[in-house]
């Protein structure tokens, strides 16, 4: 009967019975054809001594569902393989359960090389693994939103690091328990590189704008100031806040000048040219100054004007110099006519072409009798003339040559002459020129000079300036005036028995270093430290030069006490580099030192960690206790932080309640420990203010310098992101980036 009713079933059962036997029972799935449809059955056949039992279950719906699920999975796999994003599925342990073709292409792995491997250990660079594990923990614990983005690097099979922007979605089972995560990522390596390059270019342009020595104003097409560099603030005596949003006409002398300025600029703009001209401007104080203007139009891609760049150079000094030059030319003419030194120009044969009045007076000839005369008519000795010509033929100027010449009245005088060859634009000699002075009386005076040593002694003894004569070979003090004895606290007799090594408070190496520095800076003085009789140390400025005393060459030194000036200069330097409120490095000094340390770390491949600190809810402290209390909190923070840091660490205030620390030769792990000690120590600070005890906490962001960092600003930016993360995660904590 069964064979008649269901021949399709009997045929399948006979096939299974012949293969397995019926004693242990048979389970089989069979398909009954129903025209265009098929019906699927699950068949169970059990036998015993008296017969057998046949059970049929219709499983068509189940089979259709499984087929549909298989098709959907195939479609999903096909979609994931053609989608542009990297898609990775992780199980609860972080092992890869699925990776699409984009992932495999990006990383250079085959699917079989990724499936089953721990994702973080397989592709995340070691320095970022802890950070990624922390974030995956937040994903698996449901503490993130699926729309949250997270950036981290993955390492390809070839060892290349690629920056990927990831989004993660938690996968749960029917009991809402986490069973894994679906990770979708976009490779943004090139995009980030472009953004960083653009940011670096913007930073460079801004730095150039700020650092320019010339004043620069950025104006709207309606001539309204929208930005000004520091040089503009200085030249106009106004702050950036005062300049911005101010009409440019307020900087001109008056409305007439302003109208003329715009007419000149617009005429150039119409021809698409940059205009340059001189124009008077007005400072905030009302003072008018001459300026050199450069004005150009900023044109957008659509051809419409976006703004105006106005560069302004204060040419007051140049105008003064031009006036001085004109006055100098006139002065030179007057000097030429009035100086007591003679001045002569001759051709190469020695024929006089030009003389000044002093030459006429010295030789006793009128000008018309000297011009055209040869110089050999004036020399007493021919050999002196030949010596001068031979010396000039060598190409070098002749200085201090003593020659005897004959005046018109026959008197012989001795002159001290300087001469050199005159050349044309091509360097070819065309003549000679020289100056000379009558030293006849000077020679006679030198004979008398030895008799006037007592006058020198009176000058030396009575001068209020500190004067010392020393032997340059031994350093022994040969003589010292009373002013020196009063300054150093010794008698003159005692000083004459001393050596300069007893006065110098510095060793020879330090003194030679100062001498080299003075030579490099072309200074005529040395800045040294001298020790007085009472053992006090004074900073002195020493002017020294050789002097002949009774045929003996000595070193003559004039000494000025500059202790107070040096102290004031040191104080001014401290004010320029130190935050006035907290006493730590100010922003400029921190960036300068930090940049040096970053360059050193990168050059010698040493680790460097940077921390960013920010007081939590600092505004509420100011609002509750007042700004003076807030200032005291900042001072206490700086003091407590400085006491915990090393001398080699760099600690500075960047602004407001934001501080930063550079930890040289410190890895991220040790840097995090330092940050945690700082956070704990600062949470224990109690600030006493007007009978109240104020407490506060800080959030800290830490980051490790990377070889890809181009400037200290790159490191600070990452640390700032970590600081923001610490704020976002609840404050009073340390996070890293």
TrEMBL record:
Q: Which residues form the PAC domain?
A: 148-200, 275-327, 399-451
Question: Record's SMART domains?
Answer: GGDEF, PAC, PAS
> Which residue range or ranges hold the PAS domain?
72-143, 328-375, 452-522
Residue ranges of every copy of the GGDEF domain listed in the record: 606-737
Question: In terms of domain of life, where is this protein from?
Answer: Bacteria
Pfam families per record: GGDEF, PAS, PAS_4, PAS_9
From the Swiss-Prot or TrEMBL record, give the protein name: Diguanylate cyclase
Q: According to the entry, what is the taxonomic lineage of the organism? A: Bacteria, Pseudomonadati, Thermodesulfobacteriota, Desulfovibrionia, Desulfovibrionales
């Amino acid at each position: 009967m069964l064979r008649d009713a269901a021949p399709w079933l009997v045929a399948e059962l006979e096939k299974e019975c012949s293969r397995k036997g019926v004693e242990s029972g048979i389970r089989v799935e069979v398909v009954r054809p129903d025209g265009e449809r098929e019906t699927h059955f699950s068949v169970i056949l059990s036998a015993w001594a008296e017969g057998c039992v046949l059970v049929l279950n219709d499983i068509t719906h189940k089979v259709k569902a499984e087929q549909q699920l298989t098709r959907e999975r195939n479609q999903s796999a096909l979609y994931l393989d053609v989608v542009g994003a990297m898609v990775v599925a992780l199980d609860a342990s972080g092992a890869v359960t699925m990776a699409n073709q984009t992932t495999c292409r990006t990383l250079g792995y085959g699917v079989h090389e990724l499936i089953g491997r721990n994702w973080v250990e397989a592709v995340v660079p070691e320095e970022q693994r802890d950070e990624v594990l922390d974030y995956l923990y937040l994903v698996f614990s449901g503490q993130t939103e699926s729309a949250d983005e997270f950036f981290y690097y993955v390492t390809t099979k070839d060892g290349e690091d690629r920056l990927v922007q990831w989004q993660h979605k938690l996968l749960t089972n029917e009991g809402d328990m986490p069973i894994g995560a679906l990770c979708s990522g976009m490779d943004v390596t090139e995009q980030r590189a472009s953004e960083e390059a653009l940011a670096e270019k913007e930073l460079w342009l801004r730095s150039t704008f700020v650092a320019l020595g010339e004043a620069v104003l950025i104006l709207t097409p309606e001539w309204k100031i929208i930005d000004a560099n520091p040089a503009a603030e200085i030249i106009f005596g106004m702050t950036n806040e005062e300049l911005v949003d101010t009409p440019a006409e307020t900087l001109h002398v008056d409305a007439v000048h302003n109208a003329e300025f715009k007419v000149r600029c617009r005429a150039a703009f119409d021809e698409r040219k940059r205009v340059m001209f001189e124009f008077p401007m007005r400072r905030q104080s009302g003072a008018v100054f001459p300026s050199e203007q450069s004005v150009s139009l900023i044109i957008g891609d659509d051809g419409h004007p976006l703004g105006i760049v106005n560069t302004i150079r204060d040419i007051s000094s140049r105008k003064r110099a031009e006036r001085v030059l004109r006055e100098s030319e006139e002065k030179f003419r007057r000097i030429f006519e009035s100086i007591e030194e003679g001045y002569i120009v001759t051709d190469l044969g020695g024929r006089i072409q030009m003389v000044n009045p002093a030459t006429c007076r010295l030789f006793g000839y009128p000008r018309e009798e000297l011009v055209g005369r040869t110089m050999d008519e004036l020399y007493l000795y021919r050999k002196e003339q030949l010596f001068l010509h031979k010396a000039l033929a060598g190409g070098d100027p002749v200085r201090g040559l003593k020659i005897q010449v004959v005046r018109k009245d026959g008197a012989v005088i001795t002159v001290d002459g300087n001469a050199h060859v005159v050349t044309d634009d091509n360097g070819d000699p065309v003549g000679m020129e020289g100056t000379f002075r009558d030293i006849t009386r000077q020679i006679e005076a030198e004979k008398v000079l030895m008799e006037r040593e007592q006058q020198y002694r009176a000058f030396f003894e009575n001068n209020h300036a500190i004067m010392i004569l020393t032997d340059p070979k031994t350093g022994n003090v040969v003589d010292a005036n009373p002013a020196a004895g009063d300054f150093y606290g010794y008698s003159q007799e005692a000083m004459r028995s001393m050596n300069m090594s007893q006065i110098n408070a510095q060793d020879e190496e330090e003194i030679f270093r100062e001498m080299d520095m003075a030579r490099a800076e072309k200074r005529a003085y040395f800045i040294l430290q001298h020790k007085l009789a009472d053992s006090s140390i004074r900073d002195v400025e020493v002017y020294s030069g050789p002097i002949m005393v009774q045929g003996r060459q000595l070193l003559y030194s004039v000494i000025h006490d500059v202790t107070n000036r040096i102290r004031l200069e040191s104080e001014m330097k401290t004010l320029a580099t130190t935050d006035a409120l907290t006493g730590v490095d100010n922003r400029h000094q921190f960036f300068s030192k930090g940049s040096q340390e970053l360059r050193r770390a990168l050059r010698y491949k040493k680790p460097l960690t940077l921390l960013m600190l920010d007081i939590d809810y600092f505004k509420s402290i100011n609002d509750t206790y007042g700004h003076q209390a807030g200032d005291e909190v900042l001072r206490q923070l700086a003091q407590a932080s400085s006491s915990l840091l090393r001398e080699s660490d760099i600690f500075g205030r960047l602004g407001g309640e934001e501080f930063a620390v550079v930890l040289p030769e410190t890895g991220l792990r040790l840097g995090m420990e330092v940050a945690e000690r700082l956070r704990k120590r600062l949470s224990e600070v109690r600030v006493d203010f007007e009978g109240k005890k104020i407490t506060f906490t800080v959030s800290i962001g830490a980051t490790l310098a990377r070889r890809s960092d181009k400037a200290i600003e790159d490191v600070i930016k990452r640390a700032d992101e970590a600081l923001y993360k610490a704020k976002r995660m609840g404050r009073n904590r340390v996070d890293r980036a």
